[in-house]
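Q: What does the assembled structure look like for these inputs?
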Amino acid sequence: MRIPYNLEERFKVSSSPHVRKSWTVRSVMLDVLIALIPAVLASWYFFGIRAMLVELVCVLAAVLSEAIVQYLFFEKVTVDDLSAVVTGLLLAMCLPPSLPLWIAAVGSIVAIIIGKQVFGGLGNNPFNPAHVGRAVLLASWPVYMTTWMVPTKPGTSQWLGTDIVTSATPLGMLKESGYNWAVVAKKVSLWDLWIGNVGGSLGETSAIAILIGGLYLLWRGVITWHIPVTYLGTVFLLSLIFEGPAKHIADAVVYPPLFHLAAGGLMIGAWFMATDMVTTPLSKGGRIAFGIGAGVLVFLIRKFGGYPEGVCYSILIMNAFTPLLDRIFKPKTFGEVTQG
Amino acid sequence: MGRTFAYGGIHPEYNKHLSRDKKIEVFDLVDEYYVPMQQHIGKPARCLVKKGDKVEVGQKIGEADGFISANIHAPVTGTVVDVVRWPTPVGFEVETVVIERDKAYKGEMQLRDRNWRTLAVKELLEIVKEAGIVGLGGATFPTHVKLAPQDHVDVLLLNGAECEPYLTCDHRIMVERAEDIVTGAQIMAKILGVERIIIGVEDNKPDAIDALRHASLKIPSIKVVELETAYPQGAEKQLIYACTGRVVPKGALPSKAGVVVNNVGTALAVFEAVVFGKPLIERVVTVTGKVGMPANLLIRIGTPFEKVLKVAEIATETPKIISGGPMMGIAQSTLSVPVVKGTSGILVLDEGEAANWEEWNDCLNCAACIDACPMNLLPSVFSRGVELGKIEDLRKLDVMSCIECGCCSYVCPAGRPIVQFIRVAKAILRRG
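A:
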């Protein structure tokens, strides 16, 4: 009798393929955290202890609320995939440095529980969790959420957090002036704006720091160019066409579009929020439509809306369109279109 | 930069350096051969021998049964000691003839030297059919059926891409047997009645490209095309697009685009059958991975994996044995399976380095799989559909067009066994 199977010597079998790329959810999230390092350092430089505290509270609250919710609902606790850390830190990046810490904590809890866990956790949430948290805070504590600390230098009493001076953000000034570019251009130089030496949220201010992180994500293959380029490009083009040339200022043609790119949350929105894989379209065509749509919305809200800034809402609204965009831009199977 | 396919693709670790420069060696004869009656796609061959029969090397022991089937021949001279159900590397148990080699038989074969040019198309096709030749790239579709297509074709495309990581058997035959491959291609072209022959080779095999170009120098109908090294360059529809720019319509055979694709190994087998009168009883197999001596071995069909790996020496405590390459190969539960016509490689991976599909996360929607899919499908949506039990909806999304190349599973950061999900969906949809 011939027996083809040897019980002593058994090999593991599985479906092909038998190799896979060495990346995981954790390594993707780690890359996002690495990409945020320049922006975090910039926030420490300009806003000091307050920045560190807000970031710490947001991350801790996000990780703890994720762990507690998963524990209570007998789910596997997955905080070691670092996604809650990313959500907490991204939320912190969108908050004013002078925000009371308990409000920051509420934002993180809302982001994790309402923004993510109620839908079934990572991968199943329709909206960007950090922006859900921010939107709830903005609606609940509008004054705290629009009080902006003036940037400072390490070592000053303001940097140490003992004495806070506030001012408007560049976009706030623009809105208040009735979109009078000459007024804003006198107060805010493009250099300060791009380097981050202006009032604003923690991570929004330094456009260059965020750009470095975004390029890192692009290089690592964590994100594709489609959304950031079309999102930023749309805002750039719209402000070039409809805002310029601005009257009575030196760099009349480039000032408005470069201002719009670097001001407010557009940079961090374009590179870190609108590229959130979970809540953005699957196909390249869908991603391009998402970027253009979000760009148009930002411009409309900034120019005509009640708020000076619209990045958060533009992304949340486009998140809602994502299933529709997936349907419209379904990729065509290779072979469906015959060509000679 | 060479030409390439239209959508997606990946660049895995190729690891071809292990065996790329190892010359083809003849593997020693073993005592017992397990020759399955099904080594091809289609109906199993009808067994012609019974226990106790004496067989000669090259004698037909299995007769093609039906339109899509192939003959099976004795790999050695010896005695049929058993006819059993035995596992093959494909995963099924099939009727298998066990031949004990005559101690006096040392591997000799009677070879002819026929002039193929004097033979008529009908005779050539009959020789290919008689020799039991099937697609040696791994799909094992009977070649005589492929060489008699329903549609009008004008291009014969030889697949020398060998995009599977680790495998080098095609690479070696292209370097060492370039002239015979070119002759085999000419014979196939004559059978098909086509004027144009294209041989597609990935640019990580410059010596193979040189050898083929040299061998076809005086044959204007043959063009050797350099292809970008990218997986799955050798997938049929992707290869046709890369080499000819033609798109095979969804759900159709390549002949609808006027092309017939054959592996370079198949061309060599056709050459040997027509010129030498040799049936398909041996093939080149790459033995590689975590083994003491990676090699390209000319092995008689029916040789158990166990005997091959005894010589090559498994060099890990926890081996995972794969028939074929790491992307589309099949994991083996036992080493009793024999080398069959479709066995391009025996790959030993360490369990630790092999992909682990036992645990996975929810889909992140990251679309890495969609960007990697060479058929431009929606793998992530398929895998979610299977998890949710909404399989009928997947038909509309063209799940049946999946070629199971594995790019999606390879790139998934959530570690989801997407190809496995898709296979489940396809099996359920096929059952109706």
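Chain B has two domains: 1-29+113-353, 368-431.
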